[in-house]
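Annex B. Sample input.
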Amino acid sequence: MSGQSITDRIAAAQHSMTGSAISKAVCKASTHEVSGPKKKHLDYLIHCTNEMNVSVPQLADTLFERTANSSWVVVFKALITTHHLMMYGNERLIQYLASRNTLFNLNNFLDKGALQGYDMSTFIRRYSRYLNEKAMSYRLVAVDFTKMKRGIDGVMRTMSIEKLIKTLPIIQNQLDALLDFQANPNELTNGVINSAFMLLFKDSIRLFAAYNEGVINLLEKYFDMKKGQCKDALDIYKKFLYRMTKLSEFLKVAEQVGIDQGDIPDLSQAPSSLLEALEQHLASLEGKKTKELTADTRASTLSSAVSSLSNTGMSFSRMDEKERQQALEEEQARLQALKVQSTPSISTATSAWGGRSHTFRHKRACNIHIEIHTHTHTLTHTLINECGVFARCILSLCAPVFRPDMQWSQPGEKKLTGGHSWQSKTMTSTTAWNPAPMAPAPMTFPMTTPQVPMYGMVPPQMGQMGGVQLMAPQPMMYNQPVLRPTNPFAPMPGAQMQFM
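Annex B, continued. Sample output.
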């Protein structure tokens, strides 16, 4: 199965007609095409999570609806999209997911109608359990372990003993759900499961980094704990060692499927003598006869263990630094591309506008400007205020495109005649800005554009803004010549703007 299916195209067309851009983007990100969700759709959905006038529950519900599909490809990609938004989107998305009583109910999912349906359905069930556990962790501690501050002054290193003992088991449960994905290199056979594995890999690094720092804090405070706390802490440490071994196996799979070696951290376990020291200390608190280590030996053993685990923690930061640098480079490239495309050269800005090449560049700049603004605005006087010098060009060239229902009228227009060789001069979108020696005829048209949400974003009420009562939008009437002057940015002779 490859490419978008007919069902995908029909669904996208339906969302286009209804104006639901969020639903369309979710549909596009979770098509039947056997490849990971496309970056442009994920980036748009991330942008939506940061827009305060976008309904996060609606976005989440749309993702849930896609997981009700019978195709493993669609369901898997919907889960991947959700996971991606949990990682890189606004925190209010994971807050909403954590507030729900139920999330993904895919424990019995099975696609019997596809070639890889049985195998991929197994990973879908495991993957959905991890996302449920990730949301549950946030519900319990109100923080995403993969995003919390790390380092000497990080959250886990400065946490109190009581809170540590409650928090570390929550991290353990989330890490267990992640490692239960259990994919070997032979099963990572398509772009969909590979995309999921990459997100799990990134989560495993950051999750274990927080886990590791919590254990360091636990060990540093262990010999000052009460008996009950020591017992809990020793159990946590033993489970930590087991999960470190499991993570090491997971990272070997990552290495075999081509993940950059520089992104894979080195796991350095504490010396085995530390575990012996911890057990002896607990035994002495319980009144058992045991050989207690001297204070110097205990301090030396603890220092060596903390040093080893700290080295492990430092190696976890390589992937974060690389990803931050990559994101910075992409942002700079994007801004540079916009600057090159939308900023006219000095010679173009200062020269006459009669030439065809200047007209082409001017129109291209206007088209780009329109494309940028029409993602979040409709063609109203608000757009005019924000677009500045481009306003007149936008209205003259592109208003008919955005307002097919616009009524054009020329009251009192007189038919012009000019002899047998006279030809009508009408402006089109490709006509150069050359004035014609003819008398201007006044033209009047209304500019009352309905506020239709763009890309699923609900615009603020026009009557209010920031709690201040504003004047309701009024229709604008333009009386201006049909033909434009040489310089489109110059004041228009005889043009009048009236707010009726």
